[in-house]
Amino acid sequence: MKKNRSVLLLLVGTFLLTGCSTKLIKPRVTNLPPPTQPSSKELDELKTDTVGFSEENVARDEFEEVELRYALGVAANQQGNWLEAQDQFEEALELLGNLDLDGGDTLRERRFEKLLNEIAADYKITLLGLGVLSGESSISAFLQRFESIDNFKALQKGRLEKIEPTTEKITYDVPIEWNERVENCIIYYQTVARKAFETYLRRSGKYKDLMQGILREKGLPEDLVWLCLVESGFNPKAYSWARAVGPWQFIASTGRKYGLRRNWWYDERRDFVKSTYAACDYLTFLYNKFGSWPLALAAYNGGEGRVERAMKKHRTNNFWKLKLNHQTANYVPLFMAATIIAKDPARYGFDVEYEEPLQFDEVVVNRPVDLKKVAKSLGISVEALKELNPELRRGVTPPNYPSYKLRIPVGTKKLFAQRFKSYDAQGSGLFVEHKVRRGQTLSHLSQRYGVPISVIMELNGLTNKHRLRVGQRLIIPANTRVAQKARSKINLSKKAKKKATKSSIYTVKKGDTLSELAMRFSTTPREIKNANGLRDMHRIKVGQKLIIPKTRSCSGGLFKKHIVKRGENLSYLAKKYKVSISDIASINNLTNKHLLRVGQRLLIPAKADVTLETYTVKEGDTISDLALRFGSNTEEIRKLNSLVNPHYIKKGQKLKIPKRNGNGGKEKAKGRWITYVVKRGDTLWNIARAFGVLMEKLVQWNNLRAPSKLRAGERIRIFLTN
Asked: Which of 381, 583, 603, 638 has CA atoms 20 to 30 A from the CA of 703?
């Protein structure tokens, strides 16, 4: 048993040392240096739009979803469910990428940065557990996994045959060298990163020809297109842990410097044409500065200053003799290896079916149009339209952008011209009109509609954010989730009015609450909230008209009313009424299951067929242990108790657990708890091996958020069985 536990972190090597052999062939390199002074046509001067976000939590919903995904990823890590953890972390990173704040030491910026760093730290643990990368691994996971490999010879021995030079002549227009570092990268592509690299190669078919055409136009080597294999995997929406975006992975500041504009409506770093032109200008500058493509590429990844300091320190302009950080040092050999394989993938064991090149027409639009309406009128999917226009962040062409060029499928230009007049922005629901009331400010409207203050000011030509007039009418974007909810608060829609004829209309009186109204009309607070598009259930005003929907049932019955007494909690009520905690929480819109007020009125489903045991959490308990003890499973316990993070429970917490096998929870693990003080050089793996316990158990028992970062002097709790 101990032997099995002791090889947990060696699974990667064991897995990769099996399988069919793949022949690795060394190319004969011919270096064709680019012109000494490659031409560089400068982009038109573009005014940079800098969008600031208010301190109000205008992206609260998005942050909450990111945190939920992150918590689920940590939980999956602790259980060793590596694929599930990867899915959750990738979802969290994609959500963060859509937020993508830029600069300013604001509360939202700090929250964003903290989440990003925590996700990256825990994701690294997942990558070690996974062993190999999946086909949809992000570029950050792709690069990080390479850094964690320390024995390429083992990979080569188990998976690759003897390396032999090719007899065919393959030419390159950038310097390509063959050495151990480049060879290690090829081994990595053929083994650990095989699925991901195949995906990247396949996707390159969409963009390669177009990008190489731009490189030719700018007088640069066409083989530079394969930088995108290492930068983004040819994914226009790629987002890295370094907060770089797009196929060429520009950070915000460098993107602005080379003409890539970014605001709430669009991000030109994602555009596969505009970003390629910007990358050409930046690469031209770097080559002219360093006079060497390896040095220029290292600077593209790590920054000009870092490369210059390394050259000065080591007194050399030879890239291979410089000591750079791991990421930059790996970047150039990864590019060279990617180029070698991309020029002849079959020779290196890759059977790639390239995706069809993107083809499109361009049309000029002078006002905002909804991509959903355009797609529907052209008979295509909205996903296909978004793929052609990856820079658009809101599903709408930007306002105040004269002569915006929208890409549409080839051959649909005439049809678009015929139907363009029907794309009415105001009537399509892209914007709402808001009449300013007494006491309202732009900060208030920003939070209410989920739109930055600067966007509201720009749309309405406002120059002073502190001056709003009562009765002033403002145009506000309505294509956000927050705005869509808020929109229904202004006036009843036709659908709501139709629904109102089948329901009752109630005028709010002083002292009314949604919970009391729900009880009075035999419905639920959530039903009233949804029927009226309310954002906050605790904010209703005297005189406000509400639609009261018809009575509904839950879990097969109507409702009972219950007034909370001192000492009662949801676990107690769930057991008393034989219902689930989640049912009570959902019906009464409870966001925190631990906070009930004495005198609070709750609705309880009248029928349920769940028999449960209430268990009080003791020191050292984990959900996994309880599931095993009671014959249940962690997912069932999580759902019954509405746990966001199933591996965060507290001593004294009451949990609802299904009774099974008649044990009633009487069987208990026998043992004792000890405390171990971490010493310098200790790792979680060494501690687990020394005490004969699973590493995952140490993570669970101590609720470790970053298991790879133990500090000397830190105390670790360990449960030793008798």
From this structure: 583
